[in-house]
Fold each of these.
Amino acid sequence: MPDEMARPLIRRGGGEAGCSGRLEAPASDPGAPVVGILGTGDFSRSLARRLVASGYRVAVGSRNPKRSAALFPEEAEVTSQLEAVGLADLVFVAVFPEHHSTLAALKPSLAGKTLVDVSNGLSVNRDGPSNAERLAELFPESSVVKGFNTISAWTLQVGPRDGSRQILLCGNSCSAKSSVMQLCRRMGFVPVDMGLLSSSLDIENLPHRLFPCWRLPALCTLCLFAFFYAYNFLRDVLQPYVTAGKSVFYKMPIQTVNATFPAVALVTLSLVYLPGVCGALLQLWRGTKYDRFPCWLDRWLTSRKQLGLCSFMCAALHAIYSLVLPSRKSAHFKLLIESKQLQEEDVWVDAEVWRVELYLSAGIVAFGLLSLLAVASLPSVANAVNWREFSFIQSTLGYCALFVSTLHTLLFGWDRAFDPARYHFYLPPTFALALVLPVVALLGRLALLAPCVARRLGLIRRGWERSRHVRFARPDDVCCNGLEDASYV
Ligand SMILES: NC(=O)C1=CN([C@@H]2O[C@H](COP(=O)(O)OP(=O)(O)OC[C@H]3O[C@@H](n4cnc5c(N)ncnc54)[C@H](OP(=O)(O)O)[C@@H]3O)[C@@H](O)[C@H]2O)C=CC1
Ligand SMILES: [Fe+3]
């Protein structure tokens, strides 16, 4: 350590921020290592605050220290770039990569030290070299570690959420990397070693990815919406126009949309539970859980949470659209016309009244359950429940939501699927189409609950393998003999 590092930079005492996440009064540890930061921008300010609160002494290097000093906590020393790098063994480069070359004069002072490159590029860089590799070329006598670029200045300031915010790191020097990892932990983050500096290109490209895990579920929801909207348009708007010259195009903005959202919500919800059934059937067929699922099933399984949230959004929009339906002008006109034409006994049909009461009630319950599932999928809620509770909410309550939603649709459709007059353009009613996948998912789940199947699946999920035990007993024997643990067979 250089002599200057013994100089106490901290003027106030306090505790560590690491675990609580909140910035508290800093530790007064004059022996604490000095961390250098080059640059005085947003990232540098947030980093300095967190480092000070985590008990480090901080030296910030600026081209114009006087101008920037007031923006930093008083415990941090804001000085010239040269002086700052002279004080610290570990220096963060919080300067945009375009300006890295302007730091070349610091080369001798940075020799043998660790440089942390926090920079991101303007766009995805597929060909390389990465900013960190360029920085390593510029400072060959320093050890460059890439990291911290995947978190925002704001996250640095407010601290890691749920105590588990990961920081991806890579670098060629093990000792440099381990000192940065230690610093990460002390700041309350979880460092993840991504290997050599050649991984820095991937790490730099990560912040440019726009909702990567939402692409497939969003596309799926959009395609379903387009399909069901076109289907409803054909049946409910185009058919009356073509066959009877009746113009009902006014239905397009609300009624057709509101006939589309419930179908999309139900099909998307069934897509949350179908891959689980497919996976279970595949495991039963293969007689093991150790063979990898095909890629398409893997991707499908990992998209379930997003599919569930898309389903929730469609259900919520269906609920809102349904509430505004009676307040439309066209609904008022229709009501007036019908009330003049019909007597009370014509309008009041007991079975019809019951159907509407029941399907509305089922719809409300289904929406309540879906809201619960959506809330339970938030990381802060999911982390607060244990595994059993989480699986109860997502599996048992999830299937309940699927069942009640299906019931809502069945009650809505009633016997209309069997009425030939409802087959406009020979197309079955939308609800009948929307019911196919949910019914398959529910029947599949029911089949898996059959005691014989459930027991065999239970064995497979506890590690039983047909290929290892088939010489001694077939799974049928295991299940029918009621053997609890096939490893004893
Ligand atoms: N902001 C964020 O949320 C995140 C930022 N990052 C990365 O952190 C780095 C800094 O970002 P940010 O703090 O937002 O940027 P700012 O523009 O706010 O700050 C950059 C700082 O670089 C310093 N600097 C040094 N040399 C030059 C030069 N030649 N020209 C211009 N500025 C220079 C300046 O400080 P001075 O004038 O005092 O020398 C300036 O304040 C970037 O590489 C960015 O990609 C990464 C993740 C998140
Ligand atoms: Fe509905």
Amino acid sequence: MTTAPEVSPVAPPTPATAWPAAPGAAVEVRGLTHAYGARPVLDGLDLTVRAGEVTALLGPSGCGKTTLLRVVAGFLRPDAGTVTLDGAELTRGRRVVPTAGRGIGYVPQEGALFPHVDVAGNLAFGLPRSGWRGRARGHRDRVAELLELVGLAPELASRHPHELSGGQQQRVALARALAPRPRVVLLDEPFSSLDTDSRRETSAATIAALRAAGTTAVLVTHDPDEAMALADRVAVLHAGKVAQEGPPQEVYHRPVDAVVARALGEANVLAGRLVRPEEVSFTRDPQGDAVVVSTTFHGHDHVCVVRLDDGTSVTARATGTDLPAAGERVRLDVGAP
Ligand SMILES: Nc1ncnc2c1ncn2[C@@H]1O[C@H](COP(=O)(O)OP(=O)(O)OP(=O)(O)O)[C@@H](O)[C@H]1O
């Protein structure tokens, strides 16, 4: 059962309804610990989210990504640790700044929109409530601006959520989260329910909108390709902590351990050295030291599993049409792709 956090408000850092564009903000998470009953999920987790950047949180199902987002958003009170936004503490001991006072937007996987209200109504929900006179006009302008920001046509303002595609719905959910000009937006696997084409298009539009708004973002995903393609930095969660954080290239090519290496994609660990499948090449050779176990076609390339004579299994990526078949002998070379 999920229980509501006991919220003992401390003064929010700034009003959540600030109309002028807020600068990007950095979130600092220190020593965050949370257990559901006796089961620890976060265990002294540290994470820095840099201002104006997109940080992807990557990790397998159940590793605590959503739990971390819920703590940062203020939906869940942690057992221990601190969260600060722009240097202002959001948690202080067992007291927390309420969600509404944090200046943080949240985009869940799906189903975030109010079904009986049109798009304009959904967006208006995220807008500041101050200034009654001229508000309708101001809201109309802002709704148009928000739709443009997320790459949606202005005519969609009068549609209801069920008259939109899944990708369009997620863009409206993002626009609504951006409406009050939050300093940070947290996105919890926002593209997971979309099919491949819509996913690519929606994720690109989402990142473009975040960058245009200059909003700091945390994007939860368990897809390493998505994390590396979309984010400025990637943080890999493992065993309740951030195992490694850094730019995608760095985490991919210089993982701190095999767990991080595998979180970012296929990896071979040979005699203590990490080798990515694209760094392994092989040529047909009856005198070679390995035999092909399987070859799987992936459109852009093939993934080949090859077994060395000492029993070590190695995964390689290969392009071309004349590839050795299962059972053929090959010679392996390891080097830069
Ligand atoms: N309210 C809750 N009560 C008890 N256990 C929970 C609760 N919420 C989450 N958990 C458990 O805590 C662990 C972490 O869950 P969390 O949702 O944070 O993981 P996640 O990394 O976001 O997973 P996914 O990628 O599948 O969404 C899981 O084992 C989950 O079953």
